[in-house]
């Protein structure tokens, strides 16, 4: 996918957010000068666009510090907002990298059922393949036959090996087999699907603790990444998922999926401001190359409607 078409996809994915923000900022600019009243309106516009009260307050303060009392056109205001959004996003933009030694790099991928977790695993595998890394998948979500089958289908489609067991099997033993096989075969990255049940946090915590224990015996550094997949259409509910999974699973980074035009994309900014967890990649569709490393400056401009 070319850079231009990726930018177009992003515009489509963040359409709801950028349109809402643009509408609200357009009505603000009619007042011409950036005074307290205008800044209040800007802050409200940001909150209404799902950027969250904390990020909105921070952006308002920065605009006040830099631009207070100045007359601004609509474009200038959007440019200024884009720059402040980028300031929030830049520190968390961290692509997934295969750096583990000894290999393999072990990535545990978690997220509630329906978040696009299994598809995202395939897309991450594809990104690694593009960088010439050997990849293996492990079907650790053994509670749903559909999850095992779906991951196996993707593995076949992108041409990577998969370690799988029976439905209802022990996820930790799948992970154990996966790490052994990946080590024996000189695989660079092992991506592990895990169960997405949040209804019983204790059960999920116990299961992940068992997986970690098994990994620790094989490689004390593993898992190297615990990646939470979030569905952007969930808006503020996605923040609640970060809170829970951070506590339950020790999340080390995020991937945001389903930025498809209906999404509440501003929540990406809220997540960055509130949690500061690395954002590795964002997904805008179902196709294999619809996931890309997170570009904070481009996303900031798209959200503000100036890219």
UniProtKB/TrEMBL annotation:
It comes from the Bacteria. Residues 10-89 form the Signal recognition particle SRP54 helical bundle domain. It catalyses: GTP + H2O = GDP + phosphate + H(+). GTP binds at residues 111-118, 193-197, 257-260. Its EC number is 3.6.5.4. Its main location: membrane. Residues 104-305 form the SRP54-type proteins GTP-binding domain. It is a peripheral membrane protein. Keywords: Cell membrane, Cytoplasm, GTP-binding, Hydrolase, Membrane, Nucleotide-binding, Receptor. This is Signal recognition particle receptor FtsY.
